[in-house]
Amino acid sequence: MTSTASKAAKPIMSTLSNANIILRPSATRGHANHGWLNTYHTFSFASYFDPQFESFGALRVLNEDRVAPRSGFPTHPHRDAEIFSYIISGQLTHRDSMMTSKAKSNGPLSPDDYYVMKRGDVQFTTGGSGIAHAEQNEHDKETVHFLQIWALPWKKGLVPRYHTRSFDEGAKRKGFVTILSPLKGGIDASPEEEKAAVPLVEGTIPIHADFLMGASIIPPESKATWKIGGDNTVRAKNDRKVYVHLPIKGIGAKIRIADQQELAEGDGAFVKNVTAGQILVVESIGTGEAEVLVLDSN
Fold first, then answer.
1. Which element (helix H / strand E) includes 298?
2. How many angstroms separate the CA atoms of 270 and 112, rounded?
């Protein structure tokens, strides 16, 4: 846990008076509706390109996707990217090249090899030296709504790997829950440390980057706080780059960050000129609860 939540009546002072906060309105994102896929791109992706929005620190991709029933992404390759899916509603089935080879040689598969993801789940992929996978909505009726996020790893050619974890919704309603934290072994991790895959923050998924991800579900008239950089978790302390995103759920959610910038559903914000240890306050000011993601990068 990296934060706390409270009713808005209790004063929680933001310490980000010197922060530079830049709104990324939902309507300005790249957008494509392919019928089976309705997608919004915060950063340049596929046919959408804007030189102003190519990356933010290690954060390279933030797509808000809706995939229709009985459709999805066919098998496609990845390499040298840390890729994670955050499920908002519906279900998404993952299959990959590692799964196929393991099934042939070792028999039964674990959840990290084959997994039907649902709300609350996060699946993480280290593309590394190369991997191929498919993501399908195999449900007959329900659309799956999820965030697809990529971060750039601290080095190339890593051993491909998957992690899947479920994060408690009740905990998210009490404050920000840390989802990702850096691999404990760091950039110079040994093969043994890579295999052990121990994150710096217990209960999180390890990422090969100086990067944290948190999520909170904030009721109306309440606040949650995110401690930038965690509890002495990151290496780069100065000039942290924090991106805040409020997904489109159609429930009247709205937030105010650092007592400065308001975000409606689908909006995001670039928070610059901040330092590890500072507190980012997120206040829910809409009629619906706000499911908020924070992506905290070097």
1. none
2. 32
Sign of the C-alpha dihedral computed for residues 255, 272, 61 and 228 taken in this order: negative
Dihedral of CA 204/196/183/41: which sign? negative
Read off the pLDDT of residues 84-120 as tens digits, 9 standing for 90 and up: 999 999 999 987 665 544 444 444 545 455 578 999 9
Buried b (16+ CB within 10 A) or exposed e, 126-152: bbbeebbbebbbebeeebbbbbbbbbb
Q: Are 14 and 258 in contact (CB under 8 A)?
A: yes
The percent helix, strand, coil of the chain (3-state, each to 5) is 10, 50, 45
Long-range own/partner contacts, residues 31-36 (CB < 8 A, 24 or more apart): 35/68, 36/67, 36/68, 36/71, 36/72
* CA distance linking residue 218 with residue 175, whole number of Å: 7
Nearest to 260 by CA among 15, 11, 7, 25: 15
15-27 CB burial, b ≥16 within 10 A, e <16: bbeebebebbebe
* φ, ψ for residue 171, nearest 5 deg: -65, -35
pTM: 0.91
